[in-house]
Amino acid sequence: MPRTVDLYDSAYENYESETYREIRTETYGKDFGQTSWVTTDESEEIPQLLALKADSSVLEIGCGSGGYALHLAEKIGCRILGLDINVPGVRNANRLAQAKNLASRARFKDQDVSKVLPLEDSAFDAVFSNDVLCHLPDRAAVLGEIFRLTKPGGRTLFSDGLVVGGMVSYEELTIRSSIGFYVYSPPGENERLIREAGFRLVRAIDTTLNAASIAKRWHDAREKRNMQLVAVEGERNFEGLQRFLSCVFKLCSEGRLLRYLYVADKTE
Ligand SMILES: C[S@@+](CC[C@H](N)C(=O)[O-])C[C@H]1O[C@@H](n2cnc3c(N)ncnc32)[C@H](O)[C@@H]1O
User: Fold this and answer.
1) Domains with residue ranges and CATH for the chain
2) pTM > 0.90
3) CA 20 to 30 Å from 130, out of 34, 61, 98, 204?
4) How far is CA 115 from CA 65, 83, 137, 141, 191, in A?
């Protein structure tokens, strides 16, 4: 299904705009430049779920505009590499790393993460990905790459907001998929693929209602700034994104699409 609505280009190209900054702050509480369903509580829990330490080497798959990776580099002191296919996102991430004097610890590269990654085996203590794997066609291959890149004894964490929990109409699927390529998964499939890749599943946490509340807050924060956003995105895109966010809210709050956060170990 072709993309009919743009989310990521406008979010990353307008990262510095006061309007977009206010929307992120109103949506998430803390502004890490997010374009996902990760609440601030979840963001603050991730270092502990990944057992990050100052000497950890970390890979973020689908780092977007880089704000969260830089937060980890600053707060934990770890080294982090962020990969994303979106060029304005990666450009923004590298610019922020320079501005915050973190470029020696945090690096960002534009990379299609659905491909074999040009990185050495067992290069990272932790590999994580927030709401990105749903955009990649072959999850078994991606989890295989994540396994290859994780050190024995290391951890991985990823979220999937597209676990099918109930009946979803074609029209809802069309709106939910309007911003790009998406894969929907049946319940239990991520758990199976995690094990098949070689990991030991530690936890699968249901965060569906958090995703519903992020979608509602994001929608409402944008609606309040309707005129400013139409001037930047155009009316058609503004309306398309509002429909997308309303659809995420409805499907998640009714439990018809579920979001899970998975944590897994690569045992020694
Ligand atoms: C929902 S956003 C999440 C971004 C960030 N993790 C966050 O929490 O805000 C999904 C991200 O996946 C990236 N993405 C989609 N397909 C990709 C691919 N094939 N390779 C690398 N990144 C991809 C998009 O550019 C976007 O930044």
Assistant:
1) 8-265 (3.40.50.150)
2) yes
3) 98
4) 20, 12, 10, 9, 22
